[in-house]
Write a structure and sequence with these properties.
By secondary structure, the chain is mainly beta. The chain is built from four helices and 18 strands. A hairpin with a 4-residue loop joins strand 17 and strand 18.
């Protein structure tokens, strides 16, 4: 796959591709991801090792409410996000959720591990010589409380296993999905323009031949302007995400639509160094706003 993309697009493609494996649908929350709004180049240049995030919430005509939910992000020396610690309120109690990321030599996520009071959820990816995902595994196990316990889980513990085979054509790549029994069940065809940028993806199920199409549009600077996805053969909802950038080429807003009706709006506010200070999420249906405030470990 061509790799001539600016960081926002590069980061998105890596996470979007992995997300497609298990979901095959657009999801704004997955795009406005910590890995995207805190790119490793920026984190590395500022020598940041930790970021703390507090949360406040407000509904129209209501007071601002401090949320007990807090998040702490930890980065390695290369600026990659390696650990997320979240304190989340559930039924009046404050639970701790831990997420760990491990990386492939290409910079893509090779393993993601989430630990909460109920157990562990693990995703693992493997790659070919072109740094493309060729297998995906995931499992859940209850009662696991420590990261070290995961090492004892063997291959039979995986609840989902898939593998992928690629065929390269002129300005096209065909990816075939195989289930745990080694049987093909779907294809994803990617179409690239003459500059090597992804323009369209078509996902098609073999058994029913139902399909969905995702289109990518770019602004004059080559950044993503819009992603739109048709529903699978007319079923479900059509989805769309639009993006806007500030003068420093930082992503400063994104809007998510279903059947052309706005569902959520994201606003991102940066400091003079280009480091994210605030992320605001507005729910269009009830005008409920969630504000994430970021504090770095910089002096």
């Amino acid at each position: 796959m061509r790799k001539t993309f600016i960081f926002i697009f590069s980061a998105f493609l890596a996470f979007y591709s992995n997300f497609l494996i298990s979901q095959n649908s657009l999801n704004l929350i997955d795009f406005i991801d910590y890995h995207v709004v805190f790119p490793k180049e920026k984190i590395n240049s500022l020598n940041i090792s930790k970021l703390d995030i507090s949360v406040t919430q407000k509904k129209k005509d209501d007071i601002i409410r401090e949320s007990p939910t807090t998040k702490t992000l930890y980065f390695n020396s290369e600026g990659q996000l390696v650990h997320l610690k979240e304190y989340i309120e559930r039924n009046g109690f404050l639970d701790t959720t831990l997420t760990y990321w491990f990386y492939h030599s290409s910079g893509q996520i090779e393993s993601e591990i989430l630990l909460n009071p109920y157990g562990v959820f693990v995703k693992r990816y493997s790659f070919d010589d072109n740094d493309r995902v060729i297998s995906f595994k995931q499992f859940q196990k209850y009662g696991v409380k420590h990261l070290e316990e995961i090492k004892s889980i063997n291959e039979s513990g995986f609840t989902v296993q898939e593998s992928y085979v690629y065929q390269d054509f002129d300005n096209q790549v065909k990816k075939t999905f195989f289930n745990s029994e080694g049987k093909p069940y779907a294809d994803l065809i990617q179409y690239f323009n003459s500059f090597g940028k992804l323009e369209k993806e078509v996902f098609r199920l073999h058994r029913t031949m139902k399909s969905s199409t995702t289109a990518f549009e770019y602004c004059n600077k080559g950044k993503l302007k819009q992603i739109s996805q048709s529903s699978i053969s007319g079923e479900g909802k059509n989805k769309k995400i639009t993006f806007e950038y500030d003068d420093g080429n930082n992503l400063n807003s994104a809007k998510y639509y279903e059947n052309d009706e706005e569902q959520k709006e994201y606003q991102l506010i940066y400091d003079e160094r280009g480091l994210l200070l605030y992320k605001l999420i507005k729910n269009a249906s009830n005008e409920f706003i969630t504000v994430f405030k970021v504090k770095s470990d910089l002096i």
